[in-house]
Amino acid sequence: MAAQRQVRPDKYTEFVSGGLGRDVAKRLGLPQPAILRRYTPGAPLVLGPILVVGHTEGSDAVADVLLSWGQDVRRHAAPKEKLGAIVLVLDGLAHPDRLSAPLREVGGALRDLHRNGRVVSISRRAQPEDAPEAAAARNAVDGIVRSLAKELRAGATANGVVLSNGTSAAAPSALSALRFFLSARSAFVDGQFLTASSAGSPATPDWENPLAGRVAVVTGSARGIGASIARTLARDGAKVVAVDVPAAGDRLAAVANEIHGTALQLDITATEAGARILDHAAQRHGRLDIVVHNAGITRDKLLANMDAARWDSVIAVNIAAQLRMNQAFLASSHFADSPRIVSVSSTSGIAGNRGQTNYAASKAGVIGMVRSTAPLLEDRGGTVNAVAPGFIETAMTAKIPFATREVARRLNSLRQAGAPEDVAEAIAYFASEASAGVTANILRVCGQNLVGQ
Ligand code: NAD
To answer: Which of 30, 93, 174, 333 is the most exposed place for a label (fewest CB within 10 A)?
Structure first.
């Protein structure tokens, strides 16, 4: 198994995390980012008891499952007891009037939430056919979670699981989403929702080794986020085919060796890229289960100054190559056993970004592709999702001028940039078999970046 790397906080975060630095930041009212707790295999799921709020069949079922996971569960807050997490089960909401009691219960427990604690809601998606009262109540959860995420401090996060029609709170995919949000795997995910359905087999997942026996390909994995994705998938048990351009061959080989995977030097814009990946995976492993479309480039310019080369190269790498490769994968019998596709989009594709019309077009394009590819994978038990990173510390963002970079780092609820590992953990979550009922989701890994939705 690949060794777990420690994520180092940025220098400012380190400075304000203790002693003089903390006092100075406090006195001057400067941001005080917390050192986030990241996942290490075998570490506790959360750092204290889990309070389950709500009195429905769903909340009872969720409490039972948490107990079966070995968690310390409370149905009522005990005075002054530190809590690892609060799970707010609102699956039976029929009117906004009913929000008051459970939300006051949550409010009363927040002061006892541990550093790096978690609040996770479980609610139902509002549907056009819902009674207006029920739709209002269901949609209200959106506003609650997004606001609470902005109120929490000390590395704590708030996120929500949304149940699609007919899905129970204890459906396997709802539980796997709940577990992801509770765990340190979601350290940089804040104010976000995952929608889960009851699709997929109710297997008993291997939480420590969720990708055991699966074969994954990761494009652009010679460095940055891609290298981290390759390491994380290998840590979770997958056999990894690491893909990058020939010019990055040495670094690619180093990553592949480190994780006992294989390297495939390939420009993904080549017409036969999909076929080359399938041949490589089929020859070595007889199959391909997980595709992570990570390779991406930026060629920033204001549209008024944009030349064809910048526009075309970004579209070619970031979206056209994915579309072409997916066609090859979908036509292959080697990509047939509950396959997973996970694409890397960007918050720029959601909110737009000055100087990035080309990049934002490609990353918004990824979101469109994900939504319309999901039905094509259904009959083989497959899923396709995207992760939209915000500001992540990599070679790509190291090119941003210092002052702009420092501001960008702090513009989110956690007041810091994410690490490549944070994106990788979200991708590993989507790739796991336990996420069979989670498809067509776009998950922002951005610390609740202030831009856009
Ligand atoms: P990076 O530049 O550090 O790494 C990208 C990798 O992709 C490189 O190894 C590169 O050689 C490879 N690549 C580029 N073109 C390729 C091609 N045609 N064929 C094969 N490989 C190719 O970038 P990163 O910061 O690690 O970003 C990874 C992904 O995350 C990209 O899709 C990027 O758009 C996205 N993203 C990054 C951030 C961030 O803050 N770093 C934020 C949002 C989204």
So the answer is: 333
Q: Which CATH class is domain 33-196?
A: alpha beta
| Fold entry, domain 215-445 | Rossmann fold (3.40.50)
Residue partners of 440: CB distance under 8 A and separation at least 6: 195, 370, 371, 374, 384, 385
For the entire predicted model, the pTM comes to: 0.96
33-65 pLDDT, tens digit each? 899 999 999 999 999 999 999 989 999 999 999
- Quick: pLDDT tens for 270-303: 999 999 999 999 999 999 999 999 999 999 999 9
- Ligand 1 near 255 CB (within 6 A): no
Give the integer Cα–Cα distance in Å for 33 and 48: 22
Pocket test for ligand 1, best of 244, 276, 370, 411 (most atoms within 8 A of CB): 244
Both tokens of 305, joined, read: 């100054």
Instruction: Give the residue range(s) of CATH 3.40.50.720 domains in the chain.
Output: 33-196, 215-445
